[in-house]
User: Which sequence fits this backbone?
């Protein structure tokens, strides 16, 4: 049954400021609880860190518990205790408001239930927000200028690129990246993750030096992601997904859609942080305003015979360090 939107309710809601307006609980939970594991950048590289204000400052404390006092900490009678030096790093963060809308058209209700349509449209809105985060992260990560010296490797020579199956050595490249990161993290390479865009993964899976032996035979087969993780002695190998659509004709005809990859021609080695907070040794972070996203009460678009559900979110994407991840660029071309 079609739901009628009260004009009085809409007008009353529009008279309130956004901060005072409470989003629709069920619809907001649908959007906030949406996840897309394939978006590694949005979920793994730049994890959500809830903040209580739209801008502010983060403080990161040094690895005080890992400090070794090489002169010893013995305390003879009358001597002072040694002191652990706690270094503090500061980062300013800012969140910005983003918004998308979901429209439920009257005509659609002739074939489907209203709530089914609404929830599908809201899932598309949530996916659109995460895709935008993935886009922002991919732009930061795939820029060599965002990495300190010694934390990136651009494959200038064609013989060093992974599609040269004779001369290139992917395992040696991964080893070099992991060695660099071991100097800037208190953990070792078994805690690192290697991210491969789909085009790189397709080339790597056919590389003769990465083939997975079949036990009990002299035959090898294309590697699994799990096998590569064991070969490289890292926590996990993940494929970096994320495509965005563009239209080459009539926007209302999905047959005209084309898709481009967000991630391509690179390899990223990084350390994921579980249960991140502002004091975590984060490489990238997504400061996220508490209380968001919000799905606002719908308004009626009489010109298009549709109910419109506005959705707002507030977040930022922040690079906190340029030496906590390693980029291998131009892996294929």
Assistant:
């Amino acid at each position: 049954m079609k739901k009628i939107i009260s004009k009085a309710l809409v007008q009353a809601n529009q008279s309130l400021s956004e901060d005072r307006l409470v989003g629709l609980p069920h619809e907001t939970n649908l959007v906030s609880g949406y996840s897309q594991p394939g978006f590694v950048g949005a979920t793994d590289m730049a994890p959500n860190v809830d903040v209580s204000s739209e801008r502010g400052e983060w403080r990161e404390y040094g690895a005080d518990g890992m400090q070794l006092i090489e002169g010893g900490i013995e305390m003879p009678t009358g001597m002072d205790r040694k002191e652990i030096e706690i270094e503090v790093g500061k980062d300013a963060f800012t969140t910005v408001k983003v918004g998308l809308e979901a429209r439920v058209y009257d005509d659609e209700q002739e074939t489907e239930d209203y709530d089914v349509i609404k929830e599908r449209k809201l899932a598309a809105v949530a996916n659109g927000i995460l895709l935008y985060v993935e886009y922002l992260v991919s732009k930061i990560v795939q820029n060599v200028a965002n990495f300190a010296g010694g934390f990136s490797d651009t494959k200038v020579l064609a013989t060093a690129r992974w599609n040269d199956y004779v001369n290139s050595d992917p395992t040696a490249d991964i080893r070099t990246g992991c060695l660099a990161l071991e100097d800037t993290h208190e953990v070792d390479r078994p805690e690192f993750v290697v991210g491969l865009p789909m085009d790189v993964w397709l080339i790597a899976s056919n590389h003769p030096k990465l083939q997975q032996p079949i036990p009990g035979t002299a035959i090898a087969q294309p590697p699994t992601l799990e096998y590569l993780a064991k070969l490289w002695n890292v926590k996990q190998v993940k494929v970096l997904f994320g495509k965005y659509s563009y239209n080459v004709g009539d926007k209302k005809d999905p047959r005209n859609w084309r898709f481009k990859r967000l991630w391509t021609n690179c390899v990223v080695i990084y350390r994921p942080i579980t249960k991140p907070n502002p004091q975590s040794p984060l490489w990238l972070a997504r400061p996220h305003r508490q209380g968001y996203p919000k799905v606002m009460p719908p308004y009626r678009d009489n010109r298009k015979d549709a109910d419109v559900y506005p959705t707002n979110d507030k977040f930022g994407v922040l690079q906190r360090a340029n030496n906590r991840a390693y980029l291998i660029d131009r892996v294929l071309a």
